Amino acid sequence: xxxxxxxxxxxxxxxxxxxxxxxxxxxxxxxxxxxxxxxxxxxxxxxxxxxxxxxxxxxxxxxxxxxxxxxxxxxxxxxxxxxxxxxxxxxxxxxxxxxxxxxxxxxxxxxxxxxxxxxxxxxxxxxxxxxxxxxxxxxxxxxxxxxxxxxxxxxxxxxxxxxxxxxxxxxxxxxxxxxxxxxxxxxxxxxxxxxxxxxxxxxxxxxxxxxxxxxxxxxxxxxxxxxxxxxxxxxxxxxxxxxxxxxxxxxxxxxxxxxxxxxxxxxxxxxxxxxxxxxxxxxxxxxxxxxxxxxxxxxxxxxxxxxxxxxxxxxxxxxxxxxxxxxxxxxxxxxxxx
Length: 338
Ligand SMILES: [Zn+2]
Prior knowledge:
Layout: H1 3-9, E1 13-17, H2 23-33, H3 52-62, E2 66-70, H4 75-83, H5 90-121, E3 125-130, H6 133-150, E4 155-157, H7 160-163, H8 173-181, E5 186-188, H9 204-209, E6 215-217, H10 230-240, E7 245-247, H11 252-256, H12 262-272, E8 277-278, H13 285-289, H14 303-314, H15 319-333
The structure holds zinc ion.
């Protein structure tokens, strides 16, 4: 199956990508946040940089028409590491802690600003902005969301595990309240593959209090065993709450790799509701997480992204369901008009 033939026939929108500002930003992501590289795990250097030029090259080579950048800052790591440097004296310590939080909050806003400006300058990109309720505090967090959404951001990206909290932490209730009231989607990272990660079940209390919250779950739950664990938890929430959606990043390649049977995935998607599932790749993190042979000089890896598109093109869906998942659902739920 030629991917370009497929993407010419159906509009494909990638609901879930990550883009970095520079090589240095990606090196930080790879070595510091993902803890990879020589003497850790994986190749010494990432197989993809994921800067704007590579994102545009990926889209051009695949025919993906639009991509949504989920911007986030690993601010929880900054804050935890920074706390080791605080002085003993309690007054000095409190002052230095406040300064540290302020500096990190500024870092979050600067990355968000860069991502918004990049999206505004590239008509085939949009963005969700990152927040950290612990470092920013409620007022600054809500002000940041208000500012960026007003100027064109399409939603909010969470990284609560990095912040050291779970989705049932009451410090998040003002955030949920604001997002529900303004119909702003929140990308919710959940997975079963690392200890301490937020699970879909941690969102059930929030959804009980905010049943119209537009939560988009990354990787439709990402259970260890397809359909079980966090996959089943996500399905339960999706069946109970009509505004709960999910994206297929990291899951579609599992079909090509033989870990998920195509029929079983289609049956699962129909139980969720094929009107609430989005195509997503997780480019460029997906490639860093599954590195293959080193790309040739000047090129970058996009094999996982291609696998995902091949699965999207060939799953035994009706053509209507396929077009919904490929792009129409994203347009309906997130909107792209400016
Ligand atoms: Zn991601």
